[in-house]
Amino acid sequence: VWQRTIDDRIVHELNTTVPTASFAGKIDASQTCKQLYESLMAAHASRDRVIKNCIAQTSEVVKNLREEREKNLDDLTLLKQLRKEQTKLKWMQSELNVEEVVNDRSWKVFNERCRIHFKPPKNE
User: Which InterPro entries match (predicted)?
Assistant: First the structure.
C-alpha cells in the first residue's frame, strides 16, 4: 500500500497549523499552506508515478504470459500464473481510482482552509 500519511492527516495538520480567523495574526498561514501544498503535490505525483510504473510492469508480464499461454494451451500452471497477474493488474488499476478519491478529498479540505491564505500557481 502506498503512503497516504499526508492525506490521512490533512484535517489534523490544517487544524493544528492553519489558524481560524480569530487567531490569524499569530501564525504565518500563507507559508504553512504553501508548504502543505508542495507536500501534497509531491506525495500525489510520487504515488501516481509508482502506481503507473507497477501497472506498466504488470501489463508487460500479462502480455508475455498471454503469448506463452497461446503456445501452451494445456499448461494449467501458466494459466494460473496468468490469472494471478491479471488480478494484480486489475487491483493496481483500481488503486488509481482510489488515489483520485483520496486526492480529491485532500484538495477539498486544503482549499477550504487555505484558499484565503495561499493561491497555487496557475500551471498546476
Answer: MIX23 (IPR019171)
Phi, psi of 123 (to 5 degrees): -80, 0
CA torsion 60-61-63-69 (nearest 10°) is: 170
Query: Using alpha carbons only, what angle is made at residue 48 by residues 46 and 54, rounded to the nearest 5 degrees?
Result: 105
pTM, 2 dp: 0.76
Q: In this structure, are residues 118 and 30 in contact, taking their beta carbons and an 8 Å threshold?
A: yes
Every domain of the chain and the residues it spans? 29-114
Angstrom distance (rounded) from CA 96 to CA 53: 12
